[in-house]
Amino acid sequence: MSVIDRKVLEQHGVTEGEYARIQELLGREPNMLELGLFSVMWSEHCSYKSSRVHLKTLPTTGPRVVQGPGENAGAVDIGDGLAAVFKIESHNHPSFIEPYQGAATGVGGIIRDIFTMGARPIALLNALRFGSLETPLARRIFSGVVAGIGGYGNSIGIPTIGGEIVFDPMYAGNPLVNVLCLGLARHDEIIKGQASGVGNPVYYVGARTGRDGIHGATMASAEFDESSAEKRPAVQVGDPFMEKLLMEACLEVMKTDALVGIQDMGAAGLTCATSEMSSRGNCGMDVEVSLVPQRETGMTPYEIMLSESQERMLLVAKAGREREVEAVFEKWDLHAVRVGHVTASDRVRLFHHGALVADVPTKALTDEGPVYRRPMSRPSWQTAVQQLDLAPLSPPGTSQAAFESLLASPIIASKRWAFNQFDHSVGTNTIAQPGTAAGVVRIKGATQGLAVSVDGNGRHCYLDPYRGAMLAVAEASRNVACAGAEPIGGTNNLNFGNPERPEIMWQFGEAVRGIGDACRALDVPITGGNVSLYNETEGRAIYPTPVLGVVGLLADASQTVTRVFQSAGAAVVLLGENRGELGGSEYLARLLDLVQGEPPALDLAAERALQTLVVSLVRGRLVQSAHDCSDGGLAVTLAECTFGSGGIGVEVALDGVKTVPASFVEAATLFGESASRVVVSVADGHVAQVLGAAASAGVPAQVIGRTGGGDIRIDVDGTTAVLLPVAAAEGVWATAIGRRMQSVAAGAA
Amino acid sequence: MTFAVIVFPGSNSDYDAFHAASAVVGAEASLVWHKDTSLGGADAVILPGGFAHGDYLRTGAIAKFSPIMAAVRAFAERGGPVLGICNGFQVLLEAGLLPGAMVRNRGIKFVSKMVPVRVDATDTPFTGACAAGQVLHMPIAHGEGNYFAEPAVIEALERDRQVVFRYVDETGQASAAGNPNGSINNIAGICNARRNVVGLMPHPERACEASLGSADGRLVLDSMVQAFAAGVAGGRSLA
């Protein structure tokens, strides 16, 4: 033949080495369709070829793990025969090209991963990164992404219960949209995405196939350049109504016992679903491509197999039970078309009007793709950015002014402008609303609750990817613990630049090593996740940004607390040490325009002790509120505890830290971001018990002040450093983002 | 007493209403598929929130053609209590069981938050357990809840006290600050002339338990149960 030349390979993102391997596996040259199948299945997005060797080092097992990585989502035991099913996934590249639809279909994709497992989705969270809000482009993308997340999640009726949003110029050309979905299933209801049983029928269900999203997975595996806007046809369009019907129909058909396996058609569409289901079941599959319901005329087998049209599923039913399956889809007015059957071979064979058009060994697509141990090297600038010498610098104004500036920082300010566009009350399970703490949902018919948090700090990871990643695990886990929940499982979304550059690969390797060490120390197994590489525009990579989602189990959902002070006159107790670390802090970035220093130190044993203590204090109802200390340090943490309390103030006296030059003592004491700290409020009668429990646990604890009054007042070494009425502080914090967004027209597409 | 909760394709608060009526309030409740033609002897009907049929044409515009709507209409015409919540309210407007229409929220954006809502009429089967002027905290979650009607219709609604719920600020005043979506006269919910059909945008079924942030919405369901009990005691059926 060969129509397959260097140019064709380049268009498919297949290297010459990979092409040689394809020929070897097939024992011949592939045709264009077969090349297409290999190109999407071997894309970075589907094959994890650069990341796999690192991901294998993560801890993935534990007594509670019901399903680890490798299926559509992970699952952990939460008692009473129930499992929490969850996963995080990115839709970064599509959201840059078309913010509304990119984000919407990202939500749709992760929801499908959860109900594919036989679980009913009960909550969504998101971790979002945008460029500086001072730029119109970032505001437009932010606005569109928020509208898209809402447009999909609100319609389908799954509450968005939390998340985090960061703005930084490093994400200007590569926003991050990571969405976590949490579902609930009985252990015995969990369904695998595998085919089995020779002769069993293979059904295509859901939306018709169009030409949208062809090579979406390949697009997600390349850098952006100035022509990226022209890739818009590779972004899919979401239809939450179709997804809602599909979800209800699938959950209904799963109850019938007529189902063998099911998988959604996400990245790489029908190609991925047919090959992965066959591969997991160690069988083959014959599919007549012309039977696939099509939205457009004249579609070729290549287009049908590579389309990433949304809201489609592939399922294998038990032979003889076809009518039961079809009846359910008829009820919901959905297509359920028998397109093929399971075979005893080890090959995926595709037919078009009866003619064999592709014949590929299943495992060649799924398991025998390239695995790269890409070169890694520590960037030459790494040591330099970790140096922080405060001596020649001076704080740019009073602590009070810095405090107000930080409250107005888009990173710290309330995200209610976004959260108020997300339906968080549908489902009537949401106990802690977005913006108050970890998201918390109860479980109807059971005592337990689940707390979920997503966290990541790209700035920390840029300064030290190993420690930054550990800090992300610690923070997500700590947030869950502050709600009173025991962290029981994690999922990670690894957002990085081009892995073909050794410095990026080093960041990736270090971050995965950090996640692994932290997860082992905190006993949080990783049950799945997603890798998003090539987050670069015109050669400039994002901050290395691993985002951790941690799920925690509340023994009793009614025992949770939030960050908000509940009464005046309570003691304010700081658990952990105030060490005044300013490296990588929001204070340095915002007030001194400095991204410099080492991120805060992390002692994993101390972190674990702290989290265990906090969980036991909440469960024992010894604390009225609990709040993790992070961006903006202790001063911002204390302020956030007063927000939403109806004006309950706080008066605190702190000892100045001794670790910085005299001119920075106040700033480091107030705004340092040392890890492993939690602020709790405690009724007088419980203070001795709390301090005693902390002492037994080996966690430093001290009463630093009291709640009450209408002001936030913080003294450092006997001098009042911050004094502001709660209402004034809350006004600044609550409106900072909304004011910046006022000029933006609505983001809907 | 039995509640029938109608399930349209795209309803997403159907189970929430079912849960509130059954597990919280303790009444009987059944989910009725939109292709059914009978309400199965229910004593009250709830049209739940969601986005029936995708809401792609206009909110509620297709749902009015669902087979079950003939039964709902007949039930309402017999005087049976019908409550439309959020998308259910939009369906009632489209079906002509209530006057007016919904347009996009002022400010265009979807709005999801807990809001104070004042009860301005207690002589309906859905508000009998409330005090006149009582302020209830209930969540709203909608993109098209900006109530609109011709001036003559608004005038008639106000004159005949058919405005049942009104958005207010924290001081209980129907001010501009308390209006989350631009609705004329801060209208959050209305009833028909016979007062047996009520539609409202806030979600009482999501505010029936204190752990969810508010239990005020329970008064709406309790009112329905009380109205039913009073009807039975008086030898009348509501329908």
Give a brief rundown of this model.
The complex is a heterodimer of chains A (749) and B (239). With 749 residues, chain A is of the alpha+beta class. Chain A is globular and about 85 Å long.
Protein model, in words:
The complex is a heterodimer of chains A (749) and B (239). By secondary structure, chain A is of the alpha+beta class. Helices cover 35% and strands 23% of the residues of chain A. Chain A contains 26 helices and 28 strands. Chain A has a seven-stranded mixed sheet. A seven-stranded mixed sheet of chain A has the order 23-25-22-26-24-27-28, sandwiched between helices. In chain A, strands 1-2-3-6-4-5 form a six-stranded mixed sheet. The longest helix of chain A has 21 residues, at 136-156. Chain A is globular. Chain A starts with 5 loop residues before the first helix and ends in an 8-residue tail after the last helix. Chain B is globular, with a radius of gyration of 16 Å. In chain B, the strands form two sheets. Chain B has a nine-stranded mixed sheet with strand order 2-1-3-4-11-10-9-6-7, with helices on both faces. A two-stranded antiparallel sheet of chain B has the order 5-8. Chain B is 23% helix and 24% strand. The model of chain B has no long low-confidence stretch (mean pLDDT 94). Chain B is built from five helices and eleven strands. In chain B, 59% of the residues are buried. The chains are: A alpha+beta (749), B alpha/beta (239). Chains A and B meet through helix 8 and helix 10 of A and helix 1 and strand 6 of B.
